[in-house]
Amino acid sequence: MPDPFPTGHKAPSPGTYLRLRRVAAGVSLEALGLATETDPPRCARERVEWLRQIEADVAVIGADVVEALQRFFSFDRHVLYILVAIHAGAELDTPAICASCGCSWSDACVIQEIGRNCRWSADDPTRCSAPACRPATEQGSVAA
Ligand SMILES: [Zn+2]
Ligand SMILES: [Zn+2]
Predict the structure, then answer these.
(1) Nearest bound ligand to CA 20?
(2) Entry pTM
(3) Which residue, of 52, 76, 87, 98, is most buried by count of CB atoms within 10 Å of its CB?
């Protein structure tokens, strides 16, 4: 991505950010619930509910959560910490995050077709140029 701070980005909540990155990685909440471990141990159904509460910004995103989730999908810890601070009321610059997949400067998508990282879309500077993030109206013209 050529510019880490293009304009027009709105800060998603920390839970929304984690959801965007999880969905972009193709990991379901159920699969994550089965794979994660908690201390004290909880059953898979409780873990799915706990993950849901994290993504709804109800459960606290502590260091243990960051450690657990980072083993299953990629996200930028630094971005997450900034979003947690903004969500708590801190007045910080909003990190540039793709509104569609949640990728960011140091956690950019790799576009397999061209073997390069994504950039900001020229048409919509809040989205990256990865094929899955193009607006639906554009998708038909991509292959042409
Ligand atoms: Zn994207
Ligand atoms: Zn991207």
Answers:
(1) 1
(2) 0.86
(3) 98
